[in-house]
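Entry 14. Ran structure prediction on the chain below.
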Amino acid sequence: MFKAPRGTADILPAEQPWWRYIESQAAAVCRLYGYERISTPAFEDAGLFARSVGEGTDIVNKEMYIFKDRSDNELALRPEGTASVCRAYLEHGMDNQPQPVRMYYFADIFRYERPQAGRYRQHHQFGCEAIGEASPMLDAEVIHMALSFFSSLGLTNFTLQLNSIGCRKCRPVYLQELKKYYQPLSQELCEDCRTRLGKNPLRLLDCKKPGCQRAAESAPRSADYLCEECSLHFQSLKGYLGDLGIKYTLNHRLVRGLDYYTRTVFEIQPLEGGSQSALGGGGRYDDLIGQLGGKATPAIGFATGMERIVMNLKNQGVEVPAAEKPAVFIACLGEAARCEALKTAARLREAGVSVIVSAGDKSLKAQLRNANSAGAAYVAIIGENEVSAGTVMLRNMQTSEQQELQQDDVISVLQADKIK
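Output, structure tokens:
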């Protein structure tokens, strides 16, 4: 028997209310901040992600799903959302629109990594991007938006972790200091970090192995090596966050897992769980549009995994709106009644009333059990007598009261009860 591939999960009907709740709250928050929805392909030219995410990252080196199509083009399933949005920004000339261009998305993300709680090889992401503005005020707004989103869901007990990792001007000096610090410790590092030391030392701070984390605690701090512009940007951001009443923790080890980040990086973490269970995060990527062939364009974004949010909502006991139940279940007895049931259901649906029609040759008792399981507010019973008389027996499932109605009266009775 076939099963879902390892690292994937079916989102069953019983789970859907959590997902619909998250999506509706995300869309509502984005509307408040002036963001418009964008959808991009599930796969792109593999070079897009190698250039944007960075060849020294685990995503590119180990985790991308890469394949060739019949025209021998090398493609990759989308391992993150930002690069695709930036590609669309360039391809469709959005730089000619008023800046910044604010967009949000829901996207399936694919990474070949070890499955664990809240992390899958195919997971679902909500993200937002603001492209075309360098002001730290925009950084503060994006952070405020992310926090507002989590609060709107009813989540509590999370912290904002904040850092600045500088720019192309000041980061090289910092990277040299990192190498000097780590070189005497190289034998204490994991195998991956020994490779990162030569290729991408910033990733050393992001390693989750206990030994590497201990070494990172005393590592040089990027905030101590910022150029004047980056330092001013970071100080201004912290000032704006203070004006908004947003508390944060400076975290010198926070670098995020993608090479395109510059200056501001942030992460929102639950009080219990730390960085490995982060709710979401993001940062500024002022060089990415230029790396993809466009002119230098500042930008900042934020993303969160929806599986991780569902897990936290359940852990915190947040109740979400239940899925809507059908208003009417039509139970029918006999072939003539089945034909009449289909016509009755069509009339009800045209009036905006949700209907389930029983199928098969079940007994009335079995059909009533099915109606109860479906959560229907009413059962419309149609048998041979009702077909002959042009009537319907309408049963209120809460009170068990029944009334025989003419076909034309059923809709008005349901509408009077505000049933949809």
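The domain at 13-170+226-315 is CATH 3.30.930.10 (BirA Bifunctional Protein; domain 2). Will compare against last week's run tomorrow.
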